[in-house]
UniProtKB/TrEMBL annotation:
Pfam families linked to this entry: Vps16_C, Vps16_N
Subunit structure: Core component of at least two putative endosomal tethering complexes, the homotypic fusion and vacuole protein sorting (HOPS) complex and the class C core vacuole/endosome tethering (CORVET) complex. Their common core is composed of the class C Vps proteins VPS11, VPS16, VPS18 and VPS33A, which in HOPS further associates with VPS39 and VPS41 and in CORVET with VPS8 and TGFBRAP1. Interacts with RAB5C. Interacts with STX17, MON1B. Associates with adapter protein complex 3 (AP-3) and clathrin:AP-3 complexes.
Domain Vps16 N-terminal: 4-174, 225-344
Lineage: Eukaryota, Metazoa, Chordata, Craniata, Vertebrata
GO biological process, one term: intracellular protein transport
Function: Plays a role in vesicle-mediated protein trafficking to lysosomal compartments including the endocytic membrane transport and autophagic pathways. Believed to act as a core component of the putative HOPS and CORVET endosomal tethering complexes.
Subcellular location(s) per record: Late endosome membrane; Lysosome membrane
Domain Vps16 C-terminal: 429-485, 516-795
Main location group: membrane
Designated name of the protein: Vacuolar protein sorting-associated protein 16 homolog
GO terms under cellular component: CORVET complex; early endosome; HOPS complex; late endosome membrane; lysosomal membrane
Membrane topology: Peripheral membrane protein
Alphabetized UniProt keyword annotations: Coiled coil, Endosome, Lysosome, Membrane, Protein transport, Transport
Length: 799
């Protein structure tokens, strides 16, 4: 026990730190670490080295070589550097190597030295050059921060979605020569040009300490530790990795569970359980004494849990086994200890020990296995840990496929076939994502072949558009039925209906396939007008959708489409809409209507043509009426025009207009009746009623079916009802007396003469009419009338 804690070093009174060797580094370095730019990825990630020939004190003798090693020193890649001077190296969260050049260009390489892409940090950085740079990680992704020669900061919080931000100028920033941020981004250390080191919170609001180290030259690295000249520090979540030419070590705080078990003279339950298990293996009775002591204190479950937890923090398998044996020994004396934590720890340690192997060289976690292209081992680990297929094997196979498309020495046909045979219909694998990687590698034909295996046609569309294969994308979009694909401006209204927010406002799109609409916009910009129209003619659904778009945005294009298809019916409708939407002068509107009428004649739609010509005549007449009478007539309907003339006292003009446009007498009578009643011209109304026999009657229930648009169901009694509507009972009674016998009772009830209505009903001996009158009798006022009807009913029944 004492030997095990020999490498523990106390820090104050509350914590111990220990350092143990991860690997003995056998890499064959051609340069000293001090002469290289070095970047090591966290979480046991790889190490990148680039000999720095741009150092002023050491002239370059040859082109530098960029080398990538695993954490154990196994070579992964090596390539001759042919680009510009590099200021800084760093790894992204996806373990892509970012090389920041002096001119602000950032080159991105894969784990195995394959070039991925490049981007620039802007013109200001290019002009002022890069003084220093750092790669950092946040919840948004991996970012790059640049300090320019003008001592200004430029950064991007996510290199995957590059958005440059120029930070405000920091006064006195030139006095800080080195800066270090803690792994958790909570603390900051600054090294000044006077040799002072300031440590505090990252917000700069709280100072932890400040001291003078009496060194003016800036250190090579600052990671909160004093470092050896030929070593490199890699901050981790729970410690620091330290590697040199010969060794790779890990320095960290001793976890609480390990400290309680292994510290000298510890009486923690875990320590007693470990001793009990060792004594048990020796067949010593002391095992029983230790075990009884733990049980008397009721701490056996805590002891088991301590041993399980401590095993997870130990690097050496022998100590892991010793702690797990102790935990297993303690579990035997517990009735209901849940086994999940023990089983899970055994599985995790087996995986961690496998990936810590020198040939794999990942000293912390198994999550980065896939990036090392150790696909069989990664799949076995996923199956061993019983991860869901979508989270485990599917992701590994997808990554393998993305690597496969980069093998340019294999034909497109062979690569596509191999990927399909391996992946098949594996859930969670997207062929479109793999095709996108192939396209990114310059293998367009391979990308198209891979897209053929994508079962969701809508997923194929975005990449096909990116590859300028818009016609194929249109066919796939029509097949897809995808209602989620969209682009800028495409969305849904409050009711969830797809549409385009652009120009004149909201353009509704049919609920099927807004993907088609997206492709159409690309095709329109990509092809010339003739080819675009020809493509649409071969796709009827796409043509219909584009016409709908043109109705809101491009009317002239819509007219050209109708002309090309000789669609005279739609062309006529187009000119009618255009006559009202675009033309304000009466002459222009009439000309547009004439064009529409000609189109309708060509379409052999004589009804529409005649109706359009009638509208032209009405427009000319309305303009003439406005010139002669004043007032507003233009754009009124035919009925409203007649009504306006009657209200203006122009009865003869109204009758002439009715004759010219063949308005039926019944409809004209109704229009005139309504207009005179609105004017309350009762004398003229009475003259009108006597001019000839009314074609609409006085109670016209029988005429409603003939003229439903003239006599709505709620208005069966023109003269009588119109007068009552104007609260003129006197005039209403005049017309009630002229109603025929079959409508007499209803007319009398309408004007409120219940007694006379009862007399007429009794005289007619009509049971239905008597019942109708009784339903209108109310209270004492009509009591005598009701009795009279009841007596008449009784007499009728006796007979």
């Amino acid at each position: 026990m004492d030997c095990y804690t020999a490498n523990w070093n106390p820090l104050g009174d509350s914590a111990f730190y220990r350092k143990y060797e991860l690997y003995s580094m056998d890499w064959d370095l051609k340069e000293e670490l001090r002469d290289c730019l070095v970047a090591a990825a966290p979480y046991g990630g790889p190490i990148a080295l680039l000999r720095n020939p741009w150092r002023k004190e050491k002239p370059a003798s040859a082109r530098p070589v960029l080398e990538i090693y695993s954490a154990s020193g196994v070579p992964l890649a090596s390539l001759l550097w042919k680009s510009g001077p590099v200021v800084s190296l760093g790894w992204s969260a996806e373990e892509e190597l970012l090389c920041v050049q002096e001119d602000g260009v950032v080159l991105v390489y894969g784990l195995h030295g394959d070039f991925r892409r490049h981007f620039s940090m802007g013109n200001e950085v290019l002009q002022n050059r890069v003084l220093d740079a750092r790669i950092f990680h946040t919840e948004f992704g991996s970012g790059v921060a640049i300090l320019t020669g003008a001592h200004r900061f430029t950064l991007s919080a996510n290199v995957g979605d590059l958005k440059l931000r120029r930070m405000p100028e920091v006064p006195g920033v030139s006095s800080f020569l080195q800066m270090a941020v803690s792994f958790t981004y909570r603390h900051l250390a600054l090294f000044t040009d006077t040799g002072y080191i300031w440590m505090g919170t990252a917000s700069l609001k709280e100072k932890l300490c400040e001291f003078n180290c009496n060194i003016r030259a800036p250190p090579k690295q600052m990671v909160w530790f004093v470092l050896d000249e030929d070593s490199y520090l890699v901050p981790e979540l729970d410690g620091v990795r330290i590697f040199s030419r010969s060794t790779h070590e890990f320095l960290h705080e001793v976890p609480v569970a390990s400290e309680e078990i292994f510290k000298i003279a510890s009486m923690a339950p875990g320590a007693l359980l470990l001793e009990a298990q060792k004594e048990y293996e020796k067949e010593s009775q002391k095992a029983d004494e230790y075990l009884r002591e733990i049980q008397e204190l009721g701490q056996l479950p805590q002891a088991v849990q301590q041993c399980i937890e401590a095993a997870g923090h130990e690097h050496w398998p022998d100590m892991q086994k010793s702690l797990l044996r102790a935990a297993s020994f303690g579990k035997c004396f517990l009735d209901r200890f849940p086994p999940d934590s023990f089983v899970r720890m055994c599985r995790d340690l087996r995986v961690l020990n496998a990936v810590r192997d020198y040939h794999i060289g990942i000293p912390l976690t198994y999550s980065q296995l896939v990036l090392r292209r150790l696909y069989p081992l990664a799949i076995q680990i996923c199956e061993y840990l019983r991860l869901p297929e979508v989270q485990g094997v599917s992701r590994i196979l997808a990554h393998w496929a993305c690597y496969k498309v980069q093998q340019k020495d294999v034909s497109d046909e062979d690569v596509a076939r191999a990927i399909n045979q391996k992946l098949g219909d594996t859930p969670g694998v997207s062929y479109s994502d793999i095709a996108a990687r192939a396209y990114g590698c310059g293998r367009t034909e391979l990308a198209i072949k891979l897209l053929e295996y994508e079962p969701r046609s809508g997923e194929q569309v975005p990449l096909l558009l990116k590859m300028k294969r818009s016609k194929l994308a249109l066919s796939k979009a029509i097949e897809s039925g995808d209602t989620d694909l969209g682009e800028q401006g495409l969305g849904e209204d409050e009711a969830g209906n797809p549409g385009l927010s652009k120009g004149l406002g909201w353009i509704p799109i049919p609920p099927y396939r807004p993907a088609v609409f997206t492709v159409l916009l690309h095709l329109k910009n990509e092809l010339n007008r003739g080819d675009f129209f020809m493509t649409l003619r071969n796709q009827p659904m796409a043509l219909s959708l584009y016409r709908q778009f043109c109705k809101h945005q491009e009317l002239e294009t819509l007219k050209d489409l109708y002309n090309q298809d000789d669609n005279h019916q739609e062309l006529g409708s187009f000119h009618i809409r255009a006559s009202y939407a675009a033309e304000e002068r009466i002459e222009g509107r009439v000309a547009a209507l004439q064009t529409a009428a000609d189109a309708f004649y060509k379409a052999k739609n004589e009804f529409a043509a005649k109706a359009t010509e009638d509208q032209m005549r009405l427009l000319r007449l309305q303009r003439r009426l406005e010139d002669e009478l004043g007032g507003r007539f233009l754009d009124l309907s035919l009925h409203d025009t007649v009504t306006t003339l009657i209200l203006s006292g122009q009865n003869k003009r109204a009758e002439q207009l009715a004759r010219d446009f063949r308005i039926p007498d019944k409809r004209l009578w109704w229009l005139k009746l309504t207009a005179l009643a609105d004017l309350e011209d009762w004398e003229e109304l009475e003259k009108f009623s006597k001019s000839k026999k009314s074609p609409i009657g006085y109670l016209v229930r029988e005429n409603r079916r003939a003229l439903p648009d003239v006599f709505p169901p709620s208005s069966p009694k023109p003269f009588v009802e119109i007068c009552m509507k104007q609260h003129n009972k006197y005039e209403a009674k005049k017309y009630a007396s002229r109603v025929g016998p079959e409508q007499k009772v209803k007319a009398l009830l309408l004007v409120g003469d219940v007694a006379q209505a009862a007399d007429v009903a009794i005289e007619h001996r009509n049971e239905a009419e008597m019942s109708l009158v009784l339903s209108h009798c109310t209270g004492a006022t009509d009591g005598a009338t009701a009795d009279k009807i009841q007596r008449a009913r009784a007499q009728a029944q006796k007979k």
